[in-house]
Amino acid sequence: MINAVLVFNNSGQPRLTKFYTQLDTSVQQRLISEIFALVSHRPASACNFLPLPPLLASTTPPPTPNQPHNDTPSLITYRHYATLYFILISTSTESPLALLDLIQVFVESLDRLFENVCELDLIFNFETLHAALGEMIVGGVVVETSLEKVVSGVKGQGKVAKRRETPGIGVGVEGLGAIGRGWR
Amino acid sequence: MFGHDMSWASFHVLEVMSCPKYPQKRVGYLAAVQSFRPDTEVLMLATNLLKKDISSPLPPTMSLPLITLPHIITSSLALSLLSDLLPRLSHSNPNIRKKTIAALYRLALVYPDTLRAAWPKIKDILMDEGEDSSVTAAVVNVVCELGWRRPRDFLALAPRLFDLLVDSGNNWMAIKIIKLFATLTPLEPRLIKKLLPPLTNLIRTTPAMSLLYECINGVIQGGILEGTEGAREGDEIASLCVGKLRGMIVVEGDPNLKYVALLAFNRIVSSHPNLVSMHQDVIMGCIDDLDISIRLQALDLVAGMVNSDNLVTVVERLMKQLRNAPLTTRTADDGRSNVLGVEPVADSDGEDPEETLRPTVEHKDHSPALPTEYRLTIIRQILDMCSKDTYANIVDFEWYIDTLIQLVKLVPATSQSSSESYGSGGRNLSQEADVGSAIGWELRNVAVRVSTVRSEAVRAANSLLAMVRSDDSSFSSGGQGVLTFAAWVVGEYSESSALSYAAMESLVHPRAHTLPALVICAYLQAVPKVLVSAVSDELLCWDSERKTMVSLLVARIIHCLDPLTTHPNLEVQERSVEFLELMRVTSQAVMGHGVENHDGPLLLTRAIPQLFSGFELNPVAPAAQRKVPLPDNLDLDTPINTHLAGLLQRADQDFSLDTEAVEFELFYNQRPTQRAINGPAFDKLPTFEPELETSSYQQTETSLSDADVILRKRNERRERYKDDPFYIGNDDVSSGTSTPFHDILRSTNGEDVDVDSIPIMNLDLGDHGVGIDGSSIDARKQKRKRLKKVHIAKDENIDNESLVINRSHPMAMALHQRAQERAKRSLLQVDSSGLSRFSLDSSENTIGQLDIEKQEAQDNEMAKALAEVERLRLEMQRASERIQATDGAPAEGTMVKKKKKKTTKKLKDATAEPMAQDENKSHLESRQGPEDVAGIPVLGRKKKKMRPATSNPDDEKGVQAD
Asked: What is the ipTM of this complex?
């Protein structure tokens, strides 16, 4: 399963943190900064898999041959888009390459929702950002991988605000009424 | 949300969550997801709200609690929400269905009984051909997560999963199914045959790299390679997989593919090293990759695939890498600024973030400096590779020793310099088993095991010592750990006197005094041994010239040892004092010995050599000690003192309660002292009081009665000396007595002590136990013939199975298990231990139903009681508000009827008297139940059902009233 989804920018400021197992805020911060330290030193040509940060590595037991999987997070996949890093922390039950695709779908769906998405969109419309993630991953389980369905799912929850028109008000009320009829 | 603590706002979050408007509700739920923990207190108040929203008519509202639940779920919350969640599995909207499935999975993790109720429905969804594809995919995801925990329960699903794999065309789902099958195949070998054709087909045809990789991975992990071993299609798929993996490394040039391909290779390598080593060229290429992650993987892989043919090439290549790479510059910013270019800060100006999110295309090309950790990893891997299976892969040991010496030079410098570690003793060396001592370990191991290259090893060790002496710049502080072992090798095996003189030169050099204490200890121990071997041939023909030489040498040693007697480290101090005395005696013997009889002084020719000679040191298997059979006459069961029980009983009776504790302390703390001083040594105790001795472990009851007197005296004394700064308090018996004990040993035993101290260094080789017993038990010495006639001494053992026994030993097993249990749980880890003990077998369902039924029964009862209360209330209301009868009565009347219907016949015979009782009962129950705090909200919910129009204000009141 996926243990956490993180998005932070080039200077390590978090834009989205979603931990599917709850941690203390301070531990979350440490984890983010450790991962950022790892990720920010990687050249663009490097592969998109990170070694475990010290916080996680210290507690990870070595895999045993008769038990192929376990509950400990063992895989950190990241992707770097312009100013943002997208990071997935997951257990060994996820496929590394598929996770890369998942990040791609996530970003593409954001792009579709915001039309040419940028970091500011994510800052001011964090609700839409979280809604998109909520359409794809529930409780660490991936529930949707198709771009269209994610986009329509988020749109179904209400209007997605466009940039430069009163940022902060994410969803209009009339949108809500519309979905109520549309979904039934 | 961005890492700020907002636990103070929990209640407000709850308020927003209960807003009727969807946008506000969404924000509230989002805040709950980000900030609530399963132990957040206000969560108890949210139960009802969650229940309400789960059964909301609007799908968006409905999905909010579904998304939120996994973050806040506790087993009690799961218990109360389960009945509301289950109907959502058959909701008309696929979006809701799939989210419910995912939420149920998380419920099951904390409350395994969820599955008993939910599993049949989930299974139906999976089996349903007409189901929405994304719902099926969600189910497969969940099944895959559950699958590795209890694969046996999911074997029955194999046919359906197989169909999905072949027909679906959804790559994500196919990957998950393959992952699941990989855990299923070990249980059901027939699956392999069935899976092989579609997997092969997928590997051949799929354009999606992720699916291709997972297919190969599934083939590897599912044991399909082993399962089809020998058969034609088995070879076919093996070569197909490996070929594709090679393609992923070579052709694509994508670092991600390289990485995962190496991962896959790593999984094969343990079972099929030959398959992997066919592609050695590609893998070796990856060792020089720019990316450290890839390098590390390749390094692991290389370590797995070495054999005697390619070992030298591989190691040489790694050495070259170590040698050529520039030293690390630990500046954080140089890497980053190169990669990222301008660094926009989104908060400060809105310009840069406007840039669209597009994959970065810039490429950077310079060979990265090797970080220290990576260097250490390489060195360790080289050592591991070479020493694998007791040097099975090494043909040329001289090459190996040479490599070891070069490795020492390549060890990166550690942060603490030698002068710093001087004061703190050997601690920082032993704390982190540093790589220097790992190399030293190897050097010593080779010297011990391979007798043919022993002289070579001694020469190498000698050169290492000389390097330190001459302050060779290539010898960094990181490699100091090797010196301990080098000194030992030199001391133990130096034979030719020329070498010994050189070694002595290094050992007594003043520079040695600045080394870490642990190294100095080894040096000190080696000095007399080297002396013996250095002067051995001088002694053959004793004349005045020789006499001068030897006495000079001894004088030098004394000169070197003298300052060390005041070394801050106790160990160094002790050894130097001992050897200094020995050397002084030797010097006197040499001086006093005449040159007439052409024989050296007896002390040098006989006494000192005998201190260090004895059994030859042979490596002993770690488990050998345990296998030494118990002697027949050893009886551990008979009590030594048969009257112990009675003794203790009487002791209990004699002592009053308050003195008992003190007596026990006397009993147990003083026993070792008593044991130590038996015989004449007793008299030499300077500060020891004879009275204390009376309370001994072995004493009979009569003397125990004196304990009170002793105690009184002791207290008096303590009082007397309380203010005396020169008196160390007597109450800490252990520290007070250890010094005299130490003194006694030193003064009585004198130089004999160094006989005991020899095994301190050699303890890991364990010559003691078997060396003595070995003669009688027929210990086997297995020596292996090697090419070039190299003998590698194997671990000595009593019988052949060595470590295997160790594992299966019950105690070891228990310890191992306990250690595993004790192992700290990782951060971010989901605790699913409850789930792994849980079975989905239908036979157990009957028992499992109990919980759910109980819960339902409880709910029913609660509803009944509440309905009763409601009815009473309504009746009273009706009585008091007869004026509004026209308006209120019809609506309420019908509702009551509805209630009655719902809560079945039992209500019908309810009379006025039981009614009052019921009312009490309901109060009671609302306290007992899981929603004890939520007693009022429950009422609120009922009210809402009656008067839907006013539901919201009521509800809010309900929340706030709590």
From this structure: 0.84
CB contact under 8 A, B183 and A134: no
Q: How buried is B611 (Cβ within 10 angstroms: 0-12 exposed, 13-18 middle, 19+ buried)?
A: middle
pLDDT, block means (10 residues), chain B with 962 residues: 74 88 88 82 84 85 87 86 86 87 88 84 85 86 83 82 82 86 82 82 82 84 71 75 81 78 81 76 77 79 78 83 62 36 36 39 44 79 80 81 82 50 38 70 83 82 79 61 83 75 80 81 85 71 78 86 86 88 86 72 75 72 73 76 79 60 59 45 45 43 57 72 58 42 46 42 40 39 45 63 44 52 54 58 42 63 79 79 53 43 44 46 45 41 42 43 41
* B344/A83 CB distance under 8 A: yes
The span from the CA of B311 to the CA of B621, in Å, is: 25
Contact predicate B492/B611, CB 8 Å: no
In this complex, the residue of A14, A43, A131 whose CB is nearest that of residue B364 is A43
DSSP B630: P
Tokens of residue B867, six digits: 């309905």
Closest residue to A117, CB basis, from B26, B338, B357: B357
Q: Do A29 and B3 touch (CB under 8 A)?
A: yes
Best of A95, A146, A157 to substitute, by most chain B Cβ atoms within 10 angstroms, is: A95
SS3 state of residue B379: helix
- The enclosing H or E element of B504 equals helix B497-507
Q: Which residues of B touch A21 (CB under 8 A)?
A: 828-830
What is the DSSP-derived secondary structure letter of residue B593? -
Q: How far apart are CA B937 and CA B165, in angstroms?
A: 48
Q: Do B255 and A43 touch (CB under 8 A)?
A: no
Chain B nearest-CA distance from A107, in A, is 8
- DSSP-derived letter for residue A87 is E
Nearest to A97 among B21, B101, B260 (CB): B260
Interface contacts A/B by beta carbons within 8 Å: 300
Backbone angles phi and psi of A88, in degrees to 5: -120, 130
Could you tell me which residues come within 8 angstroms of residue B822 by beta carbon, excluding any fewer than 6 positions away?
none
Distance from CA of B364 to the nearest CA of A (A): 7
Nearest CA in chain A to B100: A138
Looking at the partner chain, which of B70, B170, B257 has a beta carbon nearest the beta carbon of A139?
B70
Domains of chain A, by residue range, sit at 2-182
Question: Looking at residue B129, what DSSP letter applies?
Answer: T
What would the two tokens of residue B203 be? 């590997």
Q: Do A93 and B179 touch (CB under 8 A)?
A: yes
Question: Are residues B170 and A158, on separate chains, in Cβ contact within 8 Å?
Answer: no
- For residue B799, give the nearest of B624, B956, B613 by alpha carbon: B624
Q: What's the CATH number of domain A2-182, 3.30.56.10, 3.40.50.720, 3.40.50.2300, 3.30.450.60? A: 3.30.450.60
